Amino acid sequence: MSFQPGAGRALMRSLGYLRHYRLDALGALVALIVVSLANLAVPQALRIAVDRGVEHGDSTIVVLAALALVGLALVRGLGSFLQGYLSERASQGVAYDLREALFARIERLSFAYFDRVEAGQLISRITNDVEQVRQFAGTGVIQITSALLMLLGTTALLLLINWRLALVALTTIPIILLVLLHFVRSVFSVFGKLQIAIGKLNAVLQEDLVGMRVIRVFGQERREEQRYSAANRDLLGRNVEALNAFGNNFPLIFLTANLGMLAVVWYGGREVIGGSLSVGELVAFTAYLNYLLFPILTIGFQMATISRAQASALRVFDVLDEPDDLAERPDAHVLPQIDGRIEFRGVHFRYPGAEQETLSGIDLTIEPGQTAAIIGTTGSGKSSLVSLISRFYDVNDGAVLIDGHDVREVTLSSLRGQIGIVMQETLLFSGTIRDNIAYGRPDASDAEIEAAAHAAQAAEFIDVLPERYNTVVGERGLGLSGGQRQRIAIARALLVDPRILILDDSTSSVDTRTEAAIQDALDRLMRAGGRTVVVIAQRISTVRDADLIVVLDGGKIVARGTHAELLEDSPIYNEIIQSQLVDDRQPSSSAVGGGQ
Amino acid sequence: MRPGLESFADHESAANQRAVARRLIGEMRPYFRKWILVLLLVVMSAIAQAGAPWLIGRAVDDAMLTGDSRKLALLMLPLLGLYALNALAMRGQIRVVGVIGQSLLADLRERLFSRFLRAPLRFFDRQPTGDLMSRVINDVETLNQFFSQILSQTIGSFFALSGIIIAMLLLDVRLALVSFAVIPVMLLTTSYFGRRARVVYRKARETTGDVTAGLQEEIAGVREAQAFNRTDQNISRFRARNAANRDANVQAVGVSSAFAPAIDVLSTIATAVVIAYGGYQVVQGNLKIGVLTSFVLYVQQFFRPLQMLSTMYAQVQAGLAGAERIYAMTDEPMEPVDMATATRLDDMRGEIEFRNVRFAYEPGNDVLRDVSFTVAAGQTLALVGKTGAGKTTIANLIPRFYDVDDGAVRIDGHDVREITRESLRAGVAVVLQEPFLFAGSIADNIAYGRPDATREEVEAAAEATGAARFIRDLPEGYETQLGEGGGSISRGQRQLLTFARAILSDPRILILDEATSNVDTRTERLIQQALATLMAGRTSIVIAHRLSTIRTADLILVIDSGRIIERGTHAELLNANGAYAALYRQQFRDEEAAEVAAD
């Protein structure tokens, strides 16, 4: 068995979540004790029925004992219903709390976290891992408690009835425990390998689903089938190994338990013949024997779930304990209505875990109403620079100030509420087009939403959709093209009516007419209403119209100025302008010449 | 009205479940021989389980009450034999039933996977990858529990049950009939809880699905949520789904926790009746005390299968639901198979002809209308037009990813439907916009289409496309392992590798989706050069975005709403001053502007 350090503590910590549901948990425990007592009383009723009733020819006692059995069953039934229901309520409550805590944590983690951790892993934390912990916190704890109660109670009663016979019966327990331990060990090593085999199989599946077209193009279906089949056969082999672990050990456990029964009947039978034991006591004894085996098996099974639950609890708390690197200061104030002045003061920034600085020594001021265009090659730090304005990351040195307020000293919601962003890749959420446009302002009126769509050049295509603004989009709805999504994103940003607008000007993989429409919308967005605009520029026209152009290279500002100034003095600016047009420029000029 | 509708839906789904269950059972046919073995083992353990209480009863009557300790010892011998038999039968059952179940699951997985590999591509247009993954992983897993636990345990117990019934009837008919009296009540209870459980567990599954589906989206969009200040709203929306799921689960467990005790109470009533009636008979001298002991032991075993079923109800339901989803997938139509008369096209020259092609992804919504054109072998065709005009669709019809609804696509004069798919695709290579690489070495990836290629051929292909330079700079060169999706190298480098992959398979026809994406300038230059090499001497169909490609094309088709609205060379089309000229001016106005500014 493998125990990770701190796993036990993590598990105890997850049990701590039960305290919000202590009434349910306590009720389940009481019900459990009632069930155990009722169970332990059953063989006694049998004994009385046989010894005092049947043997003495007293039918009344027989009937009374039978009624007592029914009464015990009713008590037990009620108890086990309550125990099942209450422990489910408590454990579902724990799961609910854990899921919500995880979700709230994840929603507020900084971008740096999502650069590092895959979405799939986080989903698995909230679904699978929480479920593992829940099962342990609910059924696991209850079942172990119940098993221990039954084990102790049964042992005590067996010793009371006839201690010699009890000792004969109890010799089977160490043997069963040994077999069980062997089983748990072997099953653990098999399960480890099983998990690896499952992982490999699923990796093939995922890769092939994503690369399906490539497989078809190169006609490699049969080969992929063989690859999957090989991984699948490997998994089957592991599964059979796991089965054999069950098949080899469980019959042995039952055989040992049955041998205990045989020993009791034989030895007990001799005692009955010798007169030191009544038939009723022997009947009760054999009934108690059944109570011994199942608790031991339960504990064995729970051992397996404990170690899984421990690993899950560790993973859950790993996310919950993720330091909130963007936590608001206790004295953070609300950023008042801003004019839109952005200042970078000696900013150094390095992605967590990265060795090199992404931005080093950035000093930059953008005045309210100005349009600043950021240019530079991939990896020069453009996206990082704009991410710092909304405080998606914190600087390592220096400060980012909005209207003179350090972004770390204001509340995140008041800061981000005044900044609009159009990202390069636009994600639409499942819901209507209306919901998606109103994403940043769910209370916006229909008129406002339509106005925003109009300004973003999105109204044109929305109006021809059968359900217009009520058309459902997103993964389960209508698929929109890249250009259409981008225009929705622009409408979304427009609706927020921010003082500061950040946008990524790249309109990749859309056709020229769509691109023209988007650029038109972007241009309007930039010019309207005297906003401060920071744009990661890809187009000459954007750069030409900007009040300030900032050229980034290797995380440093290497040139700044207007288009005219930079054309004159900055070789690197000229190079970037040229290289971005590198192949298209020449044919363009000759074509223009040819066209004339 | 509403309850009526609900019970109708319930009835529907119950019938559906029966059909799915029948089909699942039908899956076992190939394991017929193994099942015979299982049957033998089950009979063995039924004998053992029915025999042991009988022997114990005999021990009470014939040995203990008569004081015969030699008889007692003698009776222990067959008891030992029965227990050993039981253990052996159990071991066999676990293994054989388990192997059947696991093999069946492996078959199902493979069947799903093969289905995916042969499903028409339009299938993937509708299904997100995550959904398909979940079919193969989660749905098959619910069946795993179904087979590994329920099948082996319930089959065993029901056979044991018949053994017990026979033994009880043999021992004492009247007492046996008395103890069977609760059975009708029990069946009614089971069916009542079954119906209730189906409803509540479906609700629980649905709410769990809501939580998971919502999560996928919320976590993918967490950056948007933060940028638009939506965090608090999202948390409260999640809270609502989370609470609905909790409540549905509690309700479901409320039903199943009532079921098990109900069965327990009923089985105890049966025991009590046996004791009361049997005890009375013993007192009257009509029954031996040992027989009564046997009966008490029997009755306890008697109800175990039902009790077990009551605890596994949720799993059975989940298993059937999983099976239903799996079958929905395996029932999807496959790519049409080759016609019986299909011939191989081995020496493809590369002439392409579209003859009055009409095509729709969904019936009634034509994407291509009456498209006709011819490209001579070795020529380059550029497709131009806005998103959704039908450019990609034209390209998709050539390797027959889809079949035309009307007209024909012909290669070297042969209708593509009359050529074997394998020989058709061997002659056509497609370079996709999104460069996709498999996990494995760089050499493996270049040789993907021709696994038998020699190292020299692989390196020559890399050399020809300009990929060799960066490969040589990698510490492990051609043996560099790429992660899933080729994560460890840049996007531009990945693109170069897909070019090398295409050139190694040496196609006669090359289809290229040429979106300019965010790559740095030097890589862009390399890609341009590689493209020229790639296209040389082949028929090329290019979904064009680069002016240089369009200008040098032998033929340009301007596509709009599924029709060819203009065709000709660059010079011809500019002179015509139509749609192409307008598009052209629009696309390159920036460059013109740059020149004006620079002047």
Number of helices of chain A: 21
Biggest β-sheet: strands ordered side by side in the sheet of chain B: 6-9-10-3-11-12
- Biggest sheet statistics of chain A: 6 strands, mixed
Q: Based on the coordinates given, report the CATH architecture of the largest domain in chain B.
A: Up-down Bundle
Low-confidence stretches of chain A: 581-596
Topology, number of strands of chain B? 12
Q: In angstroms, what is the radius of gyration of chain B?
A: 36 Å
Mean pLDDT of chain B: 80
Morphology of chain B: elongated
Helix content of chain B: 55-70%
Give the CATH H-level superfamily of the largest domain in chain B: ABC transporter type 1, transmembrane domain
Which parts of chain B are unreliable, with pLDDT below 50 for 5 consecutive residues or more?
1-9, 590-599
The percentage of residues in β strands of chain B lies in: 5-15%
Structural class of chain A: alpha/beta
Mean pLDDT across residues of chain A: 79
The CATH C-level class name of the largest domain in chain B:
Mainly Alpha
Q: How many strands, which pairing sense, and closed or not: the largest β-sheet of chain B?
A: 6 strands, mixed
Helix amount of chain A, in percent? 55-70%
Describe the structure.
The complex is a heterodimer of chains A (596) and B (599). Chain A is built from 21 helices and twelve strands. Chain A has 596 residues and is an alpha/beta fold. In chain A, the strands form three sheets. A six-stranded mixed β-sheet of chain A has the order 6-9-10-3-11-12, with helices on both faces. The longest helix of chain A is centred in the middle third of the chain and has 54 residues. Chain A is elongated. By secondary structure, chain B is of the alpha/beta class. In chain B, a hairpin with a 2-residue loop joins strand 11 and strand 12. The longest helix of chain B is centred in the middle third of the chain and has 54 residues. Chains A and B meet through helix 2, helix 3, helix 5, helix 7 and helix 8 of A and helix 2, helix 3, helix 5, helix 7 and helix 8 of B.
